[in-house]
Specification:
The protein is built from 10 helices and 8 strands. The protein is α/β, with parallel strands linked by helices. It has one domain: Aldolase class I (TIM Barrel, Alpha-Beta Barrel). Helix 6 runs parallel beside helix 8. Bound molecules: 2-phosphoglycolic acid (PGA).
Length: about 240
């Protein structure tokens, strides 16, 4: 990725009316470096918007008897280009497994959807200086089984669990060092260069500082992405 991108993970925060207000308040211009990942229900509302689109989750089969699931083939019809996979909320609340992440990443490749694979350590692991070790395991346990072609377009999102929705954030130096670590181990082992995003409590107050980190390729923004005015302020910082 040449320029940094913002991925807006709007989680389950918004109602239909909130989404309509959000879209109405966006400007009449192309947001080349902004990807909105709305609640799946609202994808059609974003159809004619100027935003790029992603989904917060995806299933790994194309069609069939999978109650409640949505496939890469189906979201592709709505112009979706990205899919978040392995978000910590899906790991901890829904107990998704490494095998599911691997299948989801492979299934995205079949529809040319770019997977954003999320990894991150807990507060306890961070305090015990186990971050690198934990991230390495989270990456390898999944990526070692992923098809080589799927690896070529993957994006990694580094999201420390203790930073998600808490207002706490690692220092720029820590994020830079960890990003470097992620890029270099993936390069050494799988011989591909991957973009890395930072996520966890990014907002309009800290984005200028975070944007100074030289080796990250963008941000995955949760709570602060549901306000169009806050999101566009962050976007201006990233594109300027
Ligand atoms: P947050 O969430 O920005 O609300 O901390 C980030 C995420 O979970 O992707």
């Amino acid at each position: 990725m040449g320029n940094k991108k913002i991925f807006a993970n709007q989680k389950m925060y918004m109602t239909k009316q909130d989404v309509e207000t959000f879209i109405k308040a966006s400007e009449e211009k192309e947001y080349e470096q902004l990807v909105i990942c709305p609640s799946i229900l609202y994808l059609p509302l974003f159809q004619d918007s100027k935003f790029h689109l992603g989904v917060q989750n995806i299933f790994y089969e194309k069609k069939g008897a999978y109650t409640g699931e949505i496939s890469p083939l189906q979201v592709k019809e709505y112009g979706v280009e990205y899919a978040i996979i392995g978000h910590s909320e899906r790991r901890t609340i829904l107990h998704e497994t490494n095998e599911m992440f691997q299948k989801k990443i492979d299934a995205c490749k079949d529809q040319d959807i770019i997977p954003i694979f999320c990894i991150g350590e807990t507060k306890e692991q961070y305090e015990m200086h186990k971050t690198n070790q934990v991230l390495k395991r989270q990456l390898f346990d999944v990526l070692k089984n992923v098809k080589k072609e799927a690896l070529e377009h993957i994006i990694i999102a580094y999201e420390p669990l203790w930073a998600i929705g808490t207002g706490m954030i690692p220092t720029n130096e820590e994020i830079e060092r960890i990003t470097q670590y992620i890029k270099s181990i993936i390069n050494q082992v799988f011989h591909v260069s991957v973009p890395v995003l930072y996520g966890g409590s990014v907002n309009e107050r800290n984005i200028s500082k975070l944007n100074q980190i030289s080796n990250i390729d963008g941000f995955l923004v949760g709570g602060a992405s549901k306000s169009i005015s806050e999101l566009l302020k962050m976007y201006e910082v990233v594109v300027s």
